[in-house]
């Protein structure tokens, strides 16, 4: 038994790591394609990109780990079945369940590790990933001057150069300066310019140029503007480019996000949100009821007990004609105020309820990753023993089909839970509840050596069916 267990473990571990890293690589490539516009042209150092990919890979574990378990289990048992090693194991008196025990133990440890990963490591990775991605997407493009195109990246300036040399020298430079608050504009024309500086300031050395500057007239009664022209052989123009440098945001500002909390933090946030919702509902009820209370007061704010009067017909008719219009207008204003107040509180109530639902969904997500690992193993292992095909052909197709089925059910049910159509518990566990009978069915079929995916078996069934149909049709024909 020890040799059989070692054989199965060795046969499983290698494809598991290979498929896991392949799936992670594909998911990272999709991530780069998604944010390629935010990464290109901003002058990021290589280690910033690697740091972002590292944190993004931690967020992709929830999809890569179950898929790699499903694919590697199908490949492992498919290869054993194709090489008749499963037949040899069963002929030695070892059932499929006993042969699966070492792998099942390994999967249980992986599932437990995935739970602790999603509870402790993933919130921290999401915190760093979210803050870094925010800084990257909000960083300005690197300052770059293209020949013949105005560059408006620096606030208050428009810079244009007709030509740009290989050494970075600019020719026929034109600069519009709009930083003057008094309304006058400045224009600088130069035949040549050279850029230098650091991360905070850009120094542009200009040669052989003219500076035009408009200013208001000295006499307040003369609305005409004065134009000043100054020629220069060499001058320096300094620009503040500190906004182009990426500044790291404090991670504590993102710490309250739902995806960046562990189970303890999620439970605490749910309790606080529920208490806020209850207090707001009580305040809204008291506030709305105050509009309908009618108290009779005299001078000195003393209550007066009025006799009860039975009114037949409409209440408005009991009023004086001169008072009806003002009373009706007051009632309409009061009803409009109540309607607007109630509509605003309903929107606030729906938003707060959605936040509570998101917290409950994230709370259940901590457990569904571990459960999905166990579920997809019980689907993949018997499925590989049934199809008896190894390699990357049929096992990959079957793994993708079953994983897509699981992923579609999980995504649709999660969206339904987010909108309130399903409870958060059922929304997150529906895919596991639906596919668990399928895993039990496949395990039973693999145990009894069923030919569930045997093409020859289905061909024989089809041929036998048509033979019986043809025989029955010939018997029903009338004799000559």
Task: Characterise the protein shown here.
- 60% of the residues lie in helices and 12% in strands.
- Strands 1-2-3-4-5 form a five-stranded antiparallel β-sheet, with no helix packed on it.
- The longest helix has 67 residues.
- It is flat and about 105 Å long.
- The two termini are 69 Å apart.
Q: What key attributes describe this structure?
A:
480 residues, five-stranded antiparallel sheet, flat, 11 helices, single chain, alpha+beta
Question: How would you briefly describe this protein structure?
Answer:
It is built from eleven helices and five strands, in the order H-H-H-H-H-H-E-E-E-E-E-H-H-H-H-H. The chain is of the alpha+beta class.
Ordered list of secondary-structure elements with their pairings:
Layout: H1 2-34, H2 36-39, H3 46-59, H4 61-82, H5 85-91, H6 96-137, E1 157-164, E2 170-177, E3 186-197, E4 201-216, E5 225-240, H7 263-292, H8 321-387, H9 394-419, H10 424-447, H11 455-475
Antiparallel strand pairs: 1-2, 2-3, 3-4, 4-5
């Amino acid at each position: 038994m020890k040799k059989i267990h070692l054989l199965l473990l060795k046969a499983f571990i290698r494809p598991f790591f290979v498929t896991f890293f392949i799936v992670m690589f594909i998911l990272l490539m999709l991530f780069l394609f998604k944010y390629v516009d935010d990464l290109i042209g901003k002058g990021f150092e290589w280690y910033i990109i690697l740091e972002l990919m590292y944190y993004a890979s931690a967020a992709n574990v929830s999809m890569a780990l179950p898929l790699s378990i499903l694919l590697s289990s199908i490949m492992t048992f498919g290869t054993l079945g194709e090489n008749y090693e499963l037949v040899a194991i069963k002929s030695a008196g070892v059932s499929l369940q006993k042969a699966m025990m070492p792998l099942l133990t390994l999967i249980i440890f992986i599932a437990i590790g995935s739970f602790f990963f999603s509870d402790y490591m993933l919130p921290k990775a999401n915190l760093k990933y979210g803050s870094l991605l925010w800084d990257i997407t909000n960083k300005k493009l690197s300052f770059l001057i293209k020949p013949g195109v105005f560059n408006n990246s620096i606030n208050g300036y428009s810079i244009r150069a007709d030509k740009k040399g290989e050494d970075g020298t600019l020719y026929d430079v034109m600069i519009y300066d709009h930083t003057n608050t008094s309304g006058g504009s400045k224009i600088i024309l130069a035949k040549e310019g050279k850029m230098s500086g650091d991360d905070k300031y850009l120094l542009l050395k200009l040669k052989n140029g003219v500076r035009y500057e408009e200013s208001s007239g000295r006499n307040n009664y003369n609305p005409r503007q004065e134009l000043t022209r100054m020629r220069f052989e060499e001058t320096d123009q300094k620009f503040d480019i500190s906004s182009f440098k990426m500044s790291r945001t404090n991670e504590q500002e993102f710490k309250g996000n739902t995806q960046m909390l562990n189970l303890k933090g999620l439970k605490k946030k749910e309790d606080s949100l529920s208490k806020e919702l209850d207090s707001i509902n009580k305040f809204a009820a008291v506030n709305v009821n105050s509009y309908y209370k009618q108290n009779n007061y005299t001078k000195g704010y003393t209550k007066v007990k009025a006799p009860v009067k039975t009114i037949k017909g409409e209440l408005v008719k009991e009023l004086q004609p001169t008072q009806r219009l003002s009373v009706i207008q007051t009632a309409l204003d009061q009803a409009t105020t109540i309607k607007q107040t109630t509509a605003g509180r309903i929107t606030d109530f729906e938003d707060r309820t959605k936040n509570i639902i998101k917290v409950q969904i994230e709370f259940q997500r901590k457990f569904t990753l571990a459960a999905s690992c166990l579920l997809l193993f019980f689907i993949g292992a018997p499925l590989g023993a049934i199809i008896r095909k190894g390699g990357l052909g049929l096992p990959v197709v079957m793994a993708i089909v079953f994983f897509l089925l699981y992923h579609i059910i999980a995504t649709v049910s999660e969206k339904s839970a987010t909108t309130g159509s399903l409870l958060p518990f059922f929304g997150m566990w529906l895919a596991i509840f639906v596919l668990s009978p399928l895993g039990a069915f496949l395990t039973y079929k693999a145990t009894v050596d069923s030919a569930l995916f045997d093409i020859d078996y289905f061909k024989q069934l089809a041929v036998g069916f048509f033979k019986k149909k043809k025989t029955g049709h010939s018997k029903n024909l009338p004799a000559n």
